[in-house]
Amino acid sequence: MRSDVFDLDLERVVYPQWLFVDHESRIPKKGDWFLFRVGREEIIVSRGAKDQVHAFYNVCRHRGSRICLENQGHNQVLACPYHAWTYELDGRLRFARLMPEGFDRSDWGLKTVNVRIWHGFIYIHLGHEEPDDFHKLVSPLEPFIKLQGIENARIVHRGQYPVKGNWKLVVENYFECYHCQPSHPSYCKVHSQEYVLARGGGPGSAPEEALAAFETHFQAFKQKASSLGYPAGDFLDERGAQHLRLADRVPLRDDFKSETADGLPAAPLMGDFEKWDSGYAGVSLNPFHHLVMPQDFVVSFRFTPRDALNTDVELVWLVDGNAREEDVDVDRLTWLWHNTILEDKQIVEDNQTGVNSAAYIPGPYSKIEQLADQFVLWYLSRLGQC
Ligand code: FES
Ligand SMILES: [Fe+2]
User: Fold this and answer.
1) For residue 110, which of 169, 165, 157, 42 has the smallest C-alpha distance?
2) CA 216 / ligand 2 centre spacing (Å)
3) Residues lining ligand 1, CB < 6 A?
4) In this structure, which residue's CA is closest to atom 3 in ligand 1?
5) pLDDT at residue 155, rounded to an integer
6) Is the pLDDT of residue 386 over 50?
7) pLDDT tens digits, residue range 209-250?
8) Is the dihedral of CA 25, 26, 31, 33 positive or negative?
9) Which of 94, 132, 151, 174 is surrounded by the most beta carbons within 10 Å?
10) Which CATH number fits domain 17-125: 1.10.10.10, 2.102.10.10, 2.60.40.10, 3.90.320.10?
């Protein structure tokens, strides 16, 4: 795996995306901050005055030292440990000792980074060009997320699953379910055979009987969801398009209300949901952030490239902000994706070991790996842009 290709990936593909960093509730109070690392960059995300979220490079404007050294903290100002230049929570330089006459503090604030908040999720942009219009980017996904009330949700569990593998293998694995039957026993308990096969999407993606069975199941669900005013169906960007966003809301296995081992809810209904309809939504803003949302909880998947052979994978589970502690069963609601992501970690690491061999030549995709194929096209089109 060549590190010069990884450098190109960062410049052309990763940094110019709106990257999800965390949920706002990670920094509830003025002075709270945390570090986000991607590639060679380290970003401080802070809560400043007027409740605003700020982000800037963790690079002192004096000689370039790191300023924040822990993963998170709470401070009224951020002081560089080297020569004590001191910055405000919005990155402005507040104080620098013994500087010559004519030194203007306002010229030496920290390099800031664009920030957007979407339903309580914080996104940053490290590209050099003008970022894509965030509002336009998220608007087609809005119907699939708005009932969930994520802006008021609270985190009940956070898990790190670092993968010894290139980020493209991690994303490719997330985008296909060809491996679900052989590799994900828990997933296949919650999702019907028909659904697993039909997930590739479109005619020819799965045996006809599987597609027909899923279609019958889906139509019954669609009727129920629409009668309640809940979405059903999907949105997917064109093949080879500039963006790779997807959103869908489809049924779980018959009679399952949630993605739990027995299908029973593990937390109260979230946000504006009032009734169970056995549906769940998936939303991906880009290949680096994905949401899976039954009606009682949200799982957020953050895939962060670190170097050519390492990818940080972090999962965060959220429930309704008003849910009482005694009504939330964290073990049951983390069961599926904790197990499944551990399986994925192993698969991807084994895949990476094989790919490292001089004998490796990519084979053809199956019919149900259409999304993985779409990801490759998207990646190549981003990489080709100068
Ligand atoms: S490098 Fe930060 S104060 Fe000198
Ligand atoms: Fe998987």
Assistant:
1) 42
2) 25
3) 60, 62-65, 80, 82-85
4) 83
5) 97
6) no
7) 888 888 898 999 999 999 999 999 988 888 878 899 999 999
8) negative
9) 174
10) 2.102.10.10
